[in-house]
Design brief:
Shape: elongated
Distance between the termini: 43 Å
Mean pLDDT: 89
Radius of gyration: 13 Å
Oligomer: single chain
Largest sheet: none
Order of helices and strands: HHH
Strand content: under 5%
Number of helices: 3
Structural class: mainly alpha
């Protein structure tokens, strides 16, 4: 199956997209979700795709924010 994203497309996610991606990673990878997002950010950096790298870095940050919120709620 081919990927629907093209390198020349804008990869800037909406806040809703970031939240969905963070929730999905947390569901699939639990406490490792931020590290998974950082892996994808690094992968895209090495491939020269700054936009997607920035998007994944934003997802990692959102996962960390959600972790902090959960810790403070205890």
């Amino acid at each position: 199956m081919a990927c629907g994203w093209l390198p020349e497309e804008d990869a800037t996610p909406t806040p809703k997209d970031v939240e969905f991606m963070a929730l999905t990673l947390e569901g699939q990878h639990g406490e490792h979700a931020a590290e998974v997002a950082e892996f994808f950010a690094s992968l895209h950096t090495h491939r020269g795709d700054a936009g997607r790298s920035w998007a994944w870095a934003g997802v990692a940050e959102r996962v960390r924010q959600r972790e902090r919120q959960r810790l403070h709620a205890r």
